[in-house]
Amino acid sequence: MLFAKPSCLPGAILVLLVALLGLAASPAAAQSRDSVRTLTSGGLSREYILHLPKNAPPEPLPLVIALHGALQPAGMMQRYLDLDAVADREGFIIAYPKGMNLLWNDGRSSIAGFIPLLHKRDDGRFVLDVLEALTAEGLVDPSRAYLMGFSNGGFLTAYVACKYADRFQAYATLMMTVPMDYAESCRPSKPVPILLMNGTYDPIVPAFGRPTPGARLMSADATAALFARLDGCAAPAISSAPHARITRWNDCAPGGAVAYYEVAGGHQPPSQSTDAVDALASVLLGPRRSGLDAPEEIWTFFKRFGGAPPVEIAGRAPASTTSASSALALAPPAPPARPVRAQPATPANAWAGIVPDADGASAPAPTAFAAPEPAPSLTRPIAPGAPLPLQAGFVRAGFVQGTQVAPAPATRLAQVPLPPPSPLRPRAASAQ
User: Which residues cross the membrane (predicted)?
Assistant: First the structure.
């Protein structure tokens, strides 16, 4: 697995570069069914953009709340991510909340270790207020509500997943690794279905973590292993896709699942949109890959959880892309249930992975759900020069032995049959 070298640019400059992400999207006018809504949260007037799918029936629909990155306006995130096209086809609502000063108070003391958060508002409460307001209007079905975020918004998504796990049916983070203290402070009330997507060449949120004081971050591998432990997951299944390796934990406590995408790209989610790639942004932020389409992957994951399946939109066009999640098997058959065990009290550091105590004697009382044996650790760093698998990959994993993680020899994966990369999909025509 290949990692980018830490950038020599000051962290403040790197965060400012996130604003370039929106330049990759065409400066389209708002769609006819988009509106800016206002609500009061924490005594403050807050705004969010609401996107209603075209030809949607007058009944409660699924909701995805999408949180923008630092210094990235919500409308720019909307155009850059291009999740609206999936919403129009699949029939779900999207809310794009606006962070104060274009930042989220995401539970960290600083962003990128350099810029202190400019406010101390309860943005987690604001996210819940958006959900509750749309539920009260009868627009959304709260049993099919999902939360996702990019970069700074991804950190807030993880914070909400830890603190308000029962309010959303599934979560997704793009270009985010959790703070190191989450290994002990994150105690969700139930298993958390979550999709994590990270770029191995990301200069802003490095996949190998960050030791910066005030913003110490786990590696991306350790972040995935943490949520796998919290969900009580057993051994994962590993597959490959163009420019990516996908690790899925599906043998988890009831309701839990973790999907971890290692993308050979930068601080940009992969996209198959024809105008998604901007050359300057790719130079500064790392490449944006087209082998996967982040919105498609996220929705494929989300719709596995929650209430009834999404409504059918009359006359909707068939999907123009094939996601890796649908092309590859979502999960192998689950093995018989394993003996339950309490969660560990003291996980290992971010490099060694999340490993339980040998006898579990010091483990705290289990949370509201019973967790099976933790998954084997996948968090030991890959040897320098080891290639990131594309069509067929390698597994370099450590297996739990007491409190130690012993490296296992590299194991060749069977060739995974993959469909040809889907054609780039044009963006929907914009209202002028």
Answer: none
Q: What length is written for the chain? A: 432
According to DSSP, the β-strands at 194-199 and 258-263 are parallel
Q: Which of 19-23, 355-359, 370-374 has the highest mean pLDDT?
A: 19-23
Q: What is the pLDDT of residues 76-100, one digit of tens each?
A: 889 888 899 999 999 999 999 999 9
170-174 β-sheet, strand order? 34-41, 44-51, 93-97, 61-67, 140-150, 170-174, 194-199, 258-263, 244-249, 237-241
Beta-strand pair 140-150/61-67: parallel
3-state SS assignment for residue 86 = helix
* 170: nearest Cα among 148, 137, 189, 185: 148
CA 177 to chain centre: 9
Q: How many CB atoms lie under 10 A from the CB of residue 341?
A: 16
- Asked, for residue 424, whether it belongs to a domain, the answer is no
Quick check: 320 and 422 in contact, CB under 8 A? yes
Q: Which residues lie across from 245 on neighbouring strands?
A: 240, 262
167: number of Cβ within 10 Å: 17
Check residue 88 and give its pLDDT: 95
End-to-end Cα, the chain, rounded Å:
45
Beta strand 244-249 pairing with 258-263: antiparallel
Print the domain residue range for 193. Answer: 11-311+321-412
Number of structural domains, the chain?
Answer: 1
| Cβ pair 96, 66 in contact under 8 A | yes
Q: In this structure, how many other beta carbons lie within 10 angstroms of the beta carbon of residue 327?
A: 16
413-424 burial string, b = 16+ CB within 10 Å, else e?
eeebebeebbeb
Contact 410, 387 (CB under 8 A): no
Distances (CA, A) of 104 to 119, 121, 154: 8, 8, 10
Strand ranges, E, within 137-199: 140-150, 170-174, 194-199
Bridge partners (DSSP) listed for residue 413: none
Q: What is the CATH number of the domain that holds 404?
A: 3.40.50.1820
b/e per residue, 75-114, with b = 16+ CB within 10 A?
bbbbbbbbbbbbbbbbbbbbbbbbbbebbbbbbbeebbbe
CB 28 within 8 A of CB 22: no
Mean of pLDDT values over 156-162: 97
Phi, psi of 46 (to 5 degrees): -120, 155
As given in the structure block, the two tokens for residue 114 are 């350099």
CA 52 from chain centre, in angstroms, equals 23
In-domain check, residue 4 = no
